[in-house]
Amino acid sequence: MYRTHTNGELRIENVGEQTTLSGWVQKARNLGGMTFVDLRDRYGITQLVFDMDTNKELCEKARKLGREFVIQATGKISERSNKNKNIPTGDIEIIVNELNILNSSDVPPFTIEDESDGGEEIRMKYRYLDLRRNPIRNALFLRSKMALEVRKYLDGMNFIETETPVLIKSTPEGARDFVVPSRMHQGQFYALPQSPQVFKQLLMISGFDRYYQIVKCFRDEDFRADRQPEFTQIDCEMAFIDQEDILKMFEGLAKYMFKTFKNIDFTEAFQRMSYQEAMERYGNDKPDLRFDMAISELTGLVQNKGFQVFDSVEYVGAISAPNCSEYTRKQIDALTDFVKKPQIGATGLVFVRYNADGTFKSSVDKFYSQEDLKMWAEKLNAKAGDLILVLAGSKKKTLTGLSELRLEMGSILGLRDKNKFSALWVVDFPLLDWDEESQRFHAMHHPFTSPKPEDLHLIDSNPAAIRANAYDFVINGNEIGGGSIRIHDNELQQKMFKLLGFTPEEANNQFGFLMNAFKYGAPPHGGVAFGFDRWVALFQGTDSIRDVIAFPKNNAGRDVMIDSPSVLADDQLKELSLKVL
Ligand code: ASP
User: Fold this and answer.
1) Residue 32 pLDDT grade (very low, low, confident, very high; cuts 50, 70, 90)
2) How far does Cα 343 stand from its chain's mean position?
């Protein structure tokens, strides 16, 4: 038997008993005639004591232990004179009479401590050592518990977890597919699923009625910060439902998770905001509502007063930062630099101080009177003491800039507290998205998303204005989930493919199986998928999803531990009938 207890288990009540423990040497200290070893496993740390006076040989053996050696120790549990209040086992220690070295260890390349001295790259290279550290391990324990609770909730609601294949054909989630060459069918390729979308729809046609799966998805996208080429979704689908049913069901899941893991009771229904309002008031489709500071359009108010910069643009908009009217010139310059960054690309920042005494002082006083500025303030619901920040330009770009500026101000003012949560549904997304480059429409969500019936008449005259039965779930400015009610009518689906620029042959080639299935009694259905990694990261209070994935890829999509991707041997290429150009 390697152990009778774990290293997190023993308490003062156990004093006098014998124990055998196993684990890793966290650290060893020699103090006079005594040697103290902190023995670690996933459950905690227990102090081992070796005494030169009573057992010289054993103590000398203990003095040779290095960091991360794997050992087994047997001894008597005794009360510590010098108690450690910081750990649960801190009242006791083990007076060791038998020590077994199960394995030695090289000196680890970084310290296995909560605050390690290792940078991210080295920790990723030795991820198995990184995973010995509490913060990383705890995040993965949370992940495991969250997956379990998701399953409990959905199982309780009669959802059936069903696996779907990984070697498939292209799925239309708007990214590139990862592909796998087939050896048996030379020159042919499988694609890895960007999501199980078509399979879950087929399961509805099969009559499964409520499906879910905690599932890996693969998307070959350009690497943006904190994206993983493979990631995990809680993927769900339901039949005989409308949008309201879906929102209610999964609002229930979200509330259950908040209660279970954060002890937060959301007693009210989550806010619903239209896509249009989200874009106009917050500048993006995943507003962080932990704070307000919404955007207001000022275009009509500011034009034709002789200020050329505002007169020459499509859109002028502003936010009002609370209690910032006394910002120094330097602070305002820093904000100006922020909006001039290439990612935002504003040409400048106009500001208005709404002074505590009710007067205004702006960077455009030459063009605007106190009355003018007062009207701006009213439009923004600004209060004395606020600092109004104004951007101008094309509507799309300016709203994006204001969105970034709003989030920056939220961070500066400490309004984005990680322990505070705001959740909402964004609804009524447009069905289509015009792509300038290819000069055609793309599905904003995916091609199976149904248009709102009341907008269908726009299909020929103004397709861009058609709204979809599509929704996103947003927590603290992160898109945590998204889904839609699907088209379940063959004819409408064909129309949609046509609108998206597929020829009937292309549509048939790619989705013929689904179109066929629609001929055999497809029920009304819809679903949603949640980004599990991001949700865990949010609950763990970390910014990076890498922290909640056991073996993540780095920002360049590389696994630096196993060194992947890597080249294939010539033999393997030949077998697959492939040539690298
Ligand atoms: N398949 C969609 C996605 O991955 C989710 C859904 O529509 O259910 O975004």
Assistant:
1) confident
2) 21
CA of 528 to the centre of ligand 1 (A): 6
pLDDT tens figures, 203-231:
999 999 999 999 999 999 887 778 899 99
Mutation to probe ligand 1, out of 199, 237, 445, 514 (largest number of atoms < 8 A from CB): 445
CA angle 411, 416, 418 (to 5 degrees): 130
pTM above 0.90, yes or no: yes
Alpha carbon of 253 to ligand 1 centroid (Å): 17
Q: What is the spatial distance between Cα 373 and Cα 365, in angstroms, rounded to a whole number?
A: 9
Please report the pLDDT score of residue 460 as a whole number: 85
Atom of ligand 1 nearest to the CA of 528: 8
Return the amino acid letter for 183: R
In ligand 1, the atom with minimum distance to the C-alpha of 448 is: 7
Average pLDDT of the residues of the chain: 96
Mean pLDDT, rounded, for 54-72:
96
Atom of ligand 1 nearest to the CA of 484: 7
Atom of ligand 1 nearest to the CA of 237: 8
What local confidence, expressed as pLDDT, does residue 170 receive?
A: 79
CB contact at 8 A, 462 and 446? no
The residue ranges of every structural domain in the chain are 12-103, 137-229+242-272+424-548, 291-416
Asked if CATH classification 2.40.50.140 holds for the domain at 12-103, the reply, yes or no, is yes
Q: What number of H helices and E strands is found in the chain?
A: 17, 22
268 class by beta-carbon count within 10 Å (0-12 exposed, 13-18 middle, 19+ buried):
exposed
Tokens 């550290």 correspond to 133
Strands 160-161 and 210-218, sheet pairing: parallel
Name which residue sits closest to atom 1 of ligand 1, judged by CA: 197
CATH for the stretch 137-229+242-272+424-548: 3.30.930.10
For atom 7 of ligand 1, which residue has the closest CA?
483
When the candidates are 3.20.20.70, 1.10.10.10, 3.30.1360.30, 3.10.25.10, the CATH number that belongs to 291-416 is 3.30.1360.30
Cα(486) to ligand 1 centroid in Å equals: 11
| C-alpha to C-alpha distances, 213 to 196, 197, 269, 530, nearest whole angstrom | 9, 11, 26, 11
Residue whose CB lies within 8 A of the most ligand 1 atoms, among 159, 171, 197, 198, for a mutation test: 197
Q: What is the mean pLDDT of residues 175-179?
A: 94
